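Lab notes, practical 5.
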Amino acid sequence: MEKKISLSGIKPTGTPHLGNYLGLIKPGLELAKSYQALYFIADYHGLTTVRDGKEFERMTYDVAAVWLALGMNPADVTFFRQSDVPELFELTWILSCFSPKGLLNRAHAYKASVDANLRAERDPDDGVNMGLFTYPVLMAADILLYGSHIVPVGEDQRQHIEITRDIAEAFNNNYGKILVIPEAFIQPSVATVPGIDGRKMSKSYDNVIPIFAPANQVRKRVMSVVTDSRLPEEPKNPDECNVFNIYRHFASPEEVQAMRQKYARGGFGYGEVKQELFEVLERTFGEARSQYDAVSKDRVYLEKMLLEGAERARSMGAPLMRKVRKAVGVRSNR
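Output from the prediction step:
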């Protein structure tokens, strides 16, 4: 019996951070044990915001090095760069013809831009490019081209999977059951990871803790995590503390329980628990950081790996595209 397909993608728009690791990379690597796993670098998604070509290329290789350092084996999975799969962009256009504008109007990223413009008394679409507006359609193509059954995402990405399902169902209602309807895979415990300011950890907020920054930079970010004004001697609520809500994802169950008791007793300053968080992160990522530093310099190897992965991805997507072309009435000789 063939394994079902799991798909994970990450944009190369900055160094991957703890939120990426918990919401995407870690569950993606776990799913590879029981699913046929595809991981891709969503470089064309990144073009909505990145305008420096050399920096964009550097960040693309950086993402590849991160996955390798964290335990991905390219022999066991399909790991590739989005832009190396031309069938994807053909499918994007076809799916766009089944994507109601009203549906895309409600997409979070576009809606947030419109809301920001209205608050600033600007034109609603000021600064909005079509890449941002049609972003959910490209994401739908990413998922549907390979017949993905599940997509591990954070809670904030659930809407994209729902939009993908809506588009796929609209296509299938017209042409028959050609596209697999995917499911979001969300782990409730890591649905939202707080950043250093308490908001969701996000590169767009610049509130992240990078996975593989030098140790001194990681510590600096940890020490800047926002806390309340309780005095050291006062008991504290761990569930309301940004430091604890990061710590609990990386410490052992015994350490988490001991930390809860420490909060309940009080008698410590937040600097103390921030140091403990830093030490847990070093224990988790220190060895992998050395691997990342080594592999990130070998672009020849990274490029070879990505191109080999793209060939496997295209071989998976090609049969679906033949069915789609036939269904819509487009000549298909590929």
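Observations recorded by the TA: Residues 212-292 form a domain with the Tyrosyl-Transfer RNA Synthetase fold (CATH 1.10.240.10). The chain has two domains: 5-99+134-193+298-328, 212-292.
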